[in-house]
Amino acid sequence: MAGFDGTRPIFLQLAEMLEEGIISGAFPEEGQIPSITEYSAALKINPATALKGINLLVDEGLVYKKRGVGMFVSEGAREKLLRKKRESFYSERVLPVAREAKALGLTQDELQALTARAYEEKE
C-alpha cells in the first residue's frame, strides 16, 4: 500500500497520520474526522485495521465517538499531542545527543553553540 511502510503495523501508521492531522490543524478540535468506512476505502485497508488505529486515539482521549454521528477530535487534543511529541523528541533525540556530546568531551556551552549553529543554518 502506497504511503505505508512495511516495518510497522498499518493501524499504528494510521493513528500517527491522524495525530499529525490534529497537530497540523487539518483535523481541528471538535471537528469531525473521516469515518472508518472512508478510511478503509481511501487507504485500501481492512475496516477492522482502520478501527484499531482510530481506537488507539479514542483510548488516549484524543478522539471521541458521537453515536450515530461519527468521530470527533477532543478539546485539548492538539496540546496533548504536542506534549507527547516534545517528550518523545527529548528522549529519542536530545538525550542521545547530549550523551554523545559528553562522551566526546564537549561542554554544555559548546553543545549549545553547536545547536545554535544548526538551528540558524539554512536548509
Which residue ranges are poorly predicted, with pLDDT under 50 across at least 5 consecutive positions? none
The major β-sheet equals:
3 strands, antiparallel
Number of helices: 5
Strand content: 5-15%
Specify Rg, calculated over alpha carbons: 19 Å
Sheet/helix structural class = mainly alpha
Strand order of the largest sheet: 1-3-2
**What sort of overall outline do the alpha carbons produce when their principal axes are compared?**
elongated
Q: Between the first and last Cα atoms, what is the distance in angstroms?
A: 30 Å
Order of helices and strands: HEHHEEHH
Average pLDDT taken over every residue: 94
Q: What is the strand tally?
A: 3
Q: State the helical fraction.
A: 55-70%
